[in-house]
Specification:
alpha+beta; 5 strands
Amino acid sequence: MKKVGIILVCLLCLVSCEEKEREPEVVLKNALEALNREDYDAYLQRVDWGVEMDSTQTLYMKQALRQHVGWRRSERAAVVAIDVQDVKMQSDSVCTVYYQYTFADGTNEVSSQKMVRYGEDWKLRLRN
């Protein structure tokens, strides 16, 4: 009986963790952390493209992301923290998440990201 109780508690924890990952601020933070560690596949999985991308388009996007991350690292100190500041809901399926990068030199950069929901999944909207 004890084993069943422990398994049930573990399953409930997994379900609640999974639900939390569906919040737009968590999705964005995970995407930005993936981008920062150069895990472009994990980042791209969280992006709304509006259409399916083929392998060539995906390769081009990864190259653009590599250039962006390389440029940012040449211009700024390393990112030491990514903190969500606020979420403004425009509707039940569109929101803007405000976040802040903190760099190793103590500087901060505040930015925002529009997000859209498809079913239960939030995605980053990189286009207007």
